[in-house]
Design a protein that fits this description.
The chain is of the alpha/beta class. The protein has two domains: 2-196, Rossmann fold (3-Layer(aba) Sandwich); 199-249, no CATH class. The protein is built from six helices and 16 strands. An eight-stranded mixed β-sheet has the order 4-1-5-6-12-11-10-8, with helices on both faces. A four-stranded mixed β-sheet has the order 13-16-15-14, with no helix packed on it. The mean pLDDT is 86.
Length: 323
């Protein structure tokens, strides 16, 4: 990851956007807003930007970064501005009363705030927010407060995505600094942004990303330029490879006759193996017969060793009366 900020939150952003490696976790690189250059984005998959929105050359570099599949998330710079990035910007800062701003809804099925693999919710319902900065512009709302204001929005840009989060992990702003929300959110963005560095891609016809459509793809089969949107095959563009498959919806599972199969091979020699399903209706499992015989033997044995009738005691003989 890469962090652009001039605030004291730099170490927190670096830890939350750290990447796992052989020797443990590697903190994200951190740059001051005036020091970061387009070349610093070369090996990044996630950019955490907590500074005034970029303009000029850096804004164009961030756009290309997102087009290639990277992820960019902006946090409030603590002041309103007229600058825009991907149609989004920052409005006025808002401070709540004693009750705070409560998070009313968020996307639990997909995105950086989705439930865990075990089905557990991120603790957004318990997240206390005291200050927020309004997000200006039209975008998909992934999380919102009770009053309808957006907490997290997403804007698709090519193969990548741009996010705006309306609060900061500072005690004066919110309780996000405990890491229970911001860490999984940034780690998920870091993982999804890794596709930017992948040179091999697999897609279906009609599902090619906007970034890939801007490249010139050459078919390996014909050596000519092909239409990756409609023609399945293997394509190459520079050092990148793209495998385009036929959509699964076009599969047909109807049974093909032997004559039709033979016609497909033409004059080629082939062997057709056929398996005939056995009719097991008249077959039985032999263990059932042995089980029945064993139970019958136990019943016979129990009958043979049953105890005989108890003999009836003879009545006592009468004694002669005493003289």
């Amino acid at each position: 990851g890469l962090v652009v900020t001039g605030s004291a939150l730099g170490p927190l952003w670096q830890a939350a956007a750290s990447a796992a490696g052989r020797d443990g976790r590697t903190p994200a690189k951190r740059y001051a807003p005036d020091d970061v250059t387009p070349a610093d984005l070369r090996d990044a998959t996630l950019v955490v930007w907590q500074a005034p929105l970029p303009e000029g050359e850096m804004a164009g570099a961030l756009r290309r970064f997102a087009d290639e599949g990277g992820r960019v998330i902006f946090f409030p710079p603590n002041k309103a501005a007229t600058a825009r990035f991907a149609g989004l910007g920052w409005g006025e800062k808002q401070t709540s009363g004693d009750a705070g701003f409560a998070v009313g809804r968020w996307d639990e099925d997909q995105g950086p705030l989705a439930n865990t693999d075990e089905g557990l919710l991120l603790p957004l319902a318990k997240l206390g927010v005291r200050q927020r900065q309004q997000v200006v512009g039209q975008a998909a709302v992934l999380a919102a407060f009770d009053d309808g204001q957006a907490l997290l929005v997403r804007q698709s840009l090519g193969q990548g995505e741009v996010y705006f989060c309306a609060t900061l992990p500072l005690l004066a702003w919110s309780e996000m600094g405990d890491g229970l929300v911001v860490v999984p959110m940034l780690q998920r963005l870091l993982a999804t942004g890794s596709r930017r560095l992948q040179r091999d891609s697999v897609a279906e016809c009609g599902q090619i990303g906007a970034g890939d459509l801007q490249l010139e793809w050459t078919s390996i089969e014909t050596g000519q330029r092909g239409d990756v949107q409609t023609q399945a095959g293997v394509y190459q563009s520079g050092d990148r490879w793209l495998v385009v498959n036929r959509p699964a919806a076009e599969d047909e599972f109807e049974r093909v006759g032997d004559e039709a199969v033979s016609g497909l091979f033409g004059t080629l020699s082939f062997q057709l193996f056929q398996a005939q399903r056995d009719d097991t209706a008249l077959q039985g499992e032999i263990w059932r017969m042995f089980l029945f015989l064993m139970l019958l033997a136990l019943l016979i044995e129990a009958w043979l060793i049953r105890p005989g009738p108890i003999p009836t005691a003879a009545p006592p003989k009468p004694q002669p009366a005493a003289a």
